[in-house]
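Re: [help] complex structure
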Amino acid sequence: MSGAREQVRKDPEGIEFVQASWDVPQKYHADPLLLKFFEALKEKQLLAARAPGEKGRVIFPPASFCEVTFSAVTELVPVGPTGRIVTFTVLPGTTPKLIVFVQLEGADTASAGYLRGVPEGEMTSLSLVGAPCTVVFADEPKGDWSDFWFELID
Amino acid sequence: MRHKDDMAAILGVAQVPMRTRIPEMTYPDLLATVAARAVEDAGLARDEIDGLILAQAPTATLGVDEPQYWGIAGLPGAHAFLGRVHVAAASGLSAVRLAASYVASGRAKRILVVAADLADEGDSLRGALAQMHDPFTSGQAPINAITAAALQSTHYMATHGVSERIFASPIVKNRLNGVGNPYAQLRKPVTAEEVLDSPVLSWPIKRLESSPRTSGAAAVVIGKANSSRSVRIEGFGNFAGAKPIGAEMVPGWTSYLDGSDVTQAAQRAYSAAGISNPQQELDFAEVYTSFSIFELLSIEGLGLCPKGEAARRIDAGEFHRGSRLPVNATGGATCGNPISAGALVRIADATAQLRGEAGDCQVEIRHGRAVVTAIGGLFQTHEVGVLAI
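Output below.
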């Protein structure tokens, strides 16, 4: 960095600051099971990981290590498409968004996503907790999280 | 049980008035200021400190990156033993737990724990806090500190049939308590209606429910009791587990939503301290309340009332400053939340109460015992400590 004094700025309250930033580029690699999960989305299929053993939990989205049994996980199993809403929140805005936690049929973990099709006036109804829902896929899935969302079922 | 003389104790504490910004001091200046005051409060000279632990949150809240390089080498104890603890808002209590272990084992005599935040100097916390998540699984939905607490809040309201107005009762209580606290950042009371009418951040959480962005600093000296003002650390319990996103919600999503993880931490702390009936044996509690839900789950997890009843009981006057078992009698994190230093502020406040030095915020001390909690990450790391005088 060049001389800090040169970059000193006064803020609206007259306090002197040096303007700087921590722009640190980073790349990440994915869990191999998660990459298979993204591939399966293109076929409109939801895959979870099953931990080994009789009581091995079904982890969604999949992960290659079970943090409960401390064992490596390699098996993938289909889950859903129906599930139950565990809890939710509503993000305000011109188009409010409903974020739900859903436990999919066959999965032992709950996972986040968007719930669509709920009229704005009913978005804060506590009766959504425990309500059954189903996964709906985009017409042409691309292999990422935007490929599917949830809708209520009767 | 251990003999009282073998226990580690809090010998000295210090904090500075919490504010949005503290432009007259740099990060190292803040650390040095509270360090010197805590050592003085302990009745010690700086060369009697033989260890230093820096507690910190994500670096964006500190206002500096990699804080250990920013001039802490000159602080008391740093030359003998230096440690750094980063479990977000639980760091202060976690660091005190480690310091107490070193002192109890005899490996150190007196350790200084110190933390500071200059929260206004970053543009936004969001970018820094986003680094806490796996970029692949976090693509499901925007889960951050506010939405995670909102998901817990909705679950609590639905499970226990609690209205939004009753749900705001911890905030109304804490803001009233903060009026009497000279260190509090927010010292004006609010009504439940004002909380409900403030803008929704992530329903059901509103702006006035969320703790403010706070700069501050605090320090605590741990050693063997050296005066009648020393506060013994009778027991600690911690639990790290649930992470509210995707498959990483371990051991299951229930612990994140129903507070069973804070219950586990509390049971460990009570077991170490020999507490069997917390409602009868404690004078007060200082619990982490960056949002209403944290206080409710903490009160219930600490066994201070049955599950699902905390909000209604606060609304009915329980846990207020003049009640039998006050919670956050100084206003807590609701009235000022420096994320790195916050847990040390809870300890400083609890120490002042037990010593009878809490001024306008003083509660009645009958048993000489209190409990302090901290929560770090998105409800991921829980720390519970039992303090006694």
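Chain B has a mean pLDDT of 91.
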